[in-house]
Write a structure and sequence with these properties.
Elements (H helix, E strand, L loop, with lengths): L11 H31 L15 H8 L4 E2 L2 E4 L9 E7 L6 E10 L12 E3 L2 E7 L7 E6 L5 E7 L5 H4 L32 H6 L9 E3 L6 E5 L6 E5 L14 E3 L2 E5 L8 E6 L6 E6 L3 H15 L5
Length: 312
């Protein structure tokens, strides 16, 4: 008869040592993250001088002085010298990535050129704001500007990490004097209108959504269509405009399906291009924001090809 095997003896010392090491590692990670966050919060933030004509006003001084010591999950930081007037910052290290997160505020700025009659706005903290996304490839930064206050308040943050409601209601914008800011000219608004009699079919065929995130909005301009998305330039189309004065025979054209487009480099902006569909019985102009070109211009090209006639 075979004797039973002896029970395996568990070395409790090894278990206690392993458990102690695991706890030490966890505590080390926690205290290391706290130290990293603390160091990030103490590092002065460099903010360059930007056009802020009202930064030195008493209203801006009072607002900046009254800003909180903590915003979202970030601590208010010292500004590196030379520090601009009317500015403040909060920063800290992200627990997930270890990268420095930062929120900055500037008081007394100008409204951005993107603030037109088509710009979507939101209400937060009893003030009205518009958002402008950074179009730099890979950037997730956005800036919100007040549109009903003077001086204007501008707030920049990582829009993927911080929602507007996490930030804007806590900045005291409601204490700035109420004043609706004037809008800038909308894209294509300066074009001379031509014959729109052949535009009805095209304008009626344009879709409600022309690119990801863009939805059609109302426009008072005859034979025009507008699509808007928060944080981005609008997509604007006008039919029956005059041909661009900068176009000449032999100019470089961009062929998209059946439609040749001419880019008027004299009329576009840093964040949007102005294009004309040529060779049709009516001239169509489009303002296409940077990064939205492929889907929008393809949809427009197909609509122009189907609902206008080529010039023979």
């Amino acid at each position: 008869m075979t004797s039973p095997a002896p029970e395996t003896q568990i070395n409790r010392t090894v278990i206690f040592v392993s458990l102690g090491l695991a706890i030490a590692l966890v505590l080390g990670a926690i205290f290391g993250a706290r130290a990293m966050f603390h160091r990030a919060a103490l590092t002065p933030v460099a903010m360059p001088e930007l056009p802020s004509p009202m930064a030195g006003t008493p209203e801006c001084t009072s607002l900046i002085d009254g800003l909180p010591a903590q915003l979202a999950n970030l601590k208010r930081a010292e500004l590196a010298e030379p520090a601009p007037e009317g500015a403040a910052a909060w920063q800290g290290a992200s627990a997930a990535s270890g990268e420095t997160e930062r929120i900055t505020v500037r008081c007394g700025t100008d409204t951005p050129l993107q603030y037109t009659e088509f710009a979507p706005t939101i209400s937060a903290g009893e003030a009205t704001w518009m958002r402008v996304d950074d179009v730099t490839p890979g950037s997730t930064m956005s800036t919100w500007f007040t549109t009903d206050r003077s001086p204007v308040l501008a707030v920049t943050a990582n829009a993927q990490r911080y929602d507007a409601d996490d930030i804007l209601p806590h900045l005291g914008a409601e204490h700035l004097p109420q004043e609706v800011q004037p809008t800038h000219p909308a894209p294509l608004s300066g074009l001379a209108q031509g014959d729109t009699s052949r535009c009805d079919a095209l304008m009626g065929a344009l879709p409600d959504s022309i690119a990801e995130g863009y939805e059609r909005a109302e426009s008072d301009v005859p034979a025009s269509a507008v699509w808007v998305a928060e944080g981005r330039d609008p997509i604007v189309v006008r039919c029956g405009v005059q041909e661009p004065g900068s176009y000449a025979a032999g100019a470089q054209l961009i062929q998209v399906n059946d439609i040749p487009w001419f880019e008027d480099t004299n009329a576009g902006t840093v964040t949007a291009a102005t294009l004309y569909a040529l060779g049709r019985d009516t001239t169509v102009a489009a303002s296409i924001p940077q990064g939205q070109g492929n889907a929008a211009i393809t949809a427009l090209s197909d609509a122009v090809a189907q609902h206008t006639e080529p010039v023979r």
